[in-house]
Structures are given as structure tokens and as C-alpha cells.
């Protein structure tokens, strides 16, 4: 049986988290480890100067006095008896697109799982009703089932965003930008922002490594070498 860990940044009482828990229940044993209160926009912050306190609030449900990343760390090192097969963060009440990814505790929790070598998904939805979040959760469960079968590349997560009104289709996207400087042309590939605006579910593979390709910065390599030799 698959062990499935879910978390979020809206807090353990979020109905959207409950929707995800229900949707994933058919894939394996689900454990919820989530913040005891809302911890939105905490990015990848962790608690380092005080204890991270957690308590069990129901069978397989734990509330953590900390950030979403604290939740993943506590789950892996203190709460779970064995590593989960997958970590899913969400459903976030509000999208995580473009630059917002940098601030998102939802996405950061998935990245922390990937750092620990565990396949991970972040799922967010345009604000809506409980049934809206359930629809997003059910789609996330379908994608999670495929990830459990096929896996993901090392250090890559999936960032899923569910639109206000879904047209029934998904698009593989890249991270977009809300506001580009004048005169800067955007990449012709479809972005998460464009896909969601057109009614598609956006699925963006994101990687932990933020290194830029060296073959695109050869001038910098030459500069470093010339300085080293001068």
C-alpha cells in the first residue's frame, strides 16, 4: 500500500485540504501533516531558533506549529514510520503562478519533499466553493496516480493550478511572468498564466536547481578566467 503525505500552507482546518485527503484516499494510506494555522507566503522558510511543536488532532492527522516546510521535515523525521511514496501539497485556496511561486509555502513544501528524494506535487486552485476544490483535488489524485506509477525526474516537482472555470483540458506549461520590462519579449511557449487564463489546468514541471546553463554565459566564464590569471 502506498504511503501518501499531504500538507498545505492554509492550515489543517482548510476545507480544501480535506478535499484532497478524500480524493487521495483510494490511492493508499493518507497522513495529513499541516500547519496549525495559516502560513501562506512563507516560501521555503524553516524554524531554527525554537522547537517545532506538533500534536495529533485525529487518526493520521497532525497539526504543526510551523511552516509548510517544517511540516514536511517533521513528518519525515518524527511522525511517519517510513518515507511516503509521494508528497502532495494543497489544495491551496488561490493560484500559485508566475512570480508567486517564489513566495508560495505550498510549492516550497513540495520542493522540500523533492530535496529528500520523494516525488512531489503542489496543487492550487482559483478561489471557489468546496465543490470547486474537490474537483481540483480529484484531478490532482489522477495525476498523483500516474506519478506513483511512472515517477518523476530527480529534483523535479509538478506545480498544478486549477482555473476558475475548467474547459476540461490540461496544458503542460512553463513558469510565466506577470509583468515584463518594456521591450522584453516573452518566450513563445505557453505559460502557466496564459493557460489558466484560457481555462486550462496548468501543469508546470519545476526543478530545484536554479543554475543557468553555462553555455549561455560563456562570456562570464572568460571573465572569471581572465581575472584569475591577472
Q: What distinguishing features does this structure have?
A:
Stationary-phase Survival Protein Sure Homolog, Chain: A, 6 helices, alpha/beta, 31% helix, single chain, 9 strands, nine-stranded mixed sheet, 230 residues
List the helices and strands and how they pair.
Layout (H helix, E strand, L loop, with lengths): L1 E6 L7 H10 L3 E8 L18 E5 L2 E4 L3 H12 L6 E8 L11 H11 L4 E6 L4 H21 L5 E7 L7 E3 L19 H6 L3 E7 L10 H12 L1
Parallel strand pairs: 1-2, 1-5, 2-4, 5-6, 6-7, 8-9
Antiparallel strand pairs: 3-4, 7-9
**Element-level helix/strand string:** EHEEEHEHEHEEHEH
Strand content: 15-25%
CATH architecture level-2 label: 3-Layer(aba) Sandwich
Identify the quaternary structure here. Answer: single chain
Whole-number tally of structural domains: 1
Radius of gyration, CA atoms, in whole angstroms: 19 Å
What is the level 1 CATH name? Alpha Beta
> Tally the helices: what do you get?
6
**CATH homologous superfamily designation:** Survival protein SurE-like phosphatase/nucleotidase
CATH topology name, in short, is Stationary-phase Survival Protein Sure Homolog, Chain: A
Please give the share of residues in helix. Answer: 25-40%
Number of strands: 9
Label the structural class. alpha/beta
What order do the strands of the largest sheet run in, or round the barrel if closed?
3-4-2-1-5-6-7-9-8
Shape: globular
Q: What is the CA–CA distance across the termini? A: 61 Å
Low-pLDDT sequence parts: 181-186
Major β-sheet profile: 9 strands, mixed
Mean pLDDT: 89
Amino acid at each position: 500500500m502506498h504511503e501518501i503525505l499531504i500538507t498545505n500552507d492554509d492550515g489543517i482546518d482548510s476545507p480544501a485540504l480535506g478535499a484532497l485527503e478524500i480524493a487521495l484516499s483510494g490511492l493508499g494510506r493518507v497522513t495529513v501533516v499541516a500547519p496549525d494555522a495559516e502560513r501562506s507566503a512563507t516560501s521555503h522558510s524553516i524554524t531554527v531558533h525554537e522547537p517545532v511543536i506538533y500534536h495529533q488532532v485525529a487518526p493520521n492527522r497532525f497539526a504543526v506549529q510551523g511552516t509548510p516546510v517544517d511540516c514536511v521535515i517533521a513528518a519525515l523525521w518524527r511522525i511517519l514510520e517510513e518515507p511516503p511514496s509521494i508528497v502532495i501539497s494543497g489544495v491551496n485556496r488561490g493560484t500559485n503562478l508566475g512570480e508567486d511561486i517564489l513566495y508560495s509555502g505550498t510549492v516550497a513544501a513540495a520542493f522540500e519533499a523533492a530535496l529528500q528524494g520523494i516525488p512531489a506535487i503542489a496543487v492550487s486552485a482559483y478561489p471557489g466553493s468546496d465543490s470547486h476544490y474537490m474537483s481540483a483535488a480529484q484531478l490532482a489524485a489522477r495525476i498523483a496516480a500516474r506519478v506513483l506509477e511512472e515517477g518523476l525526474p530527480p529534483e523535479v516537482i509538478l506545480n498544478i493550478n486549477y482555473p476558475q472555470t475548467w474547459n476540461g483540458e490540461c496544458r503542460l506549461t512553463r513558469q510565466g511572468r506577470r509583468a515584463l520590462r518594456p521591450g522584453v519579449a516573452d518566450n513563445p511557449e505557453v505559460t502557466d498564466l496564459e493557460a489558466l487564463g484560457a481555462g486550462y489546468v496548468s501543469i508546470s514541471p519545476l526543478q530545484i536547481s536554479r543554475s543557468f546553463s553555462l553555455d549561455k554565459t560563456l562570456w562570464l566564464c572568460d571573465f572569471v578566467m581572465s581575472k584569475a590569471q591577472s
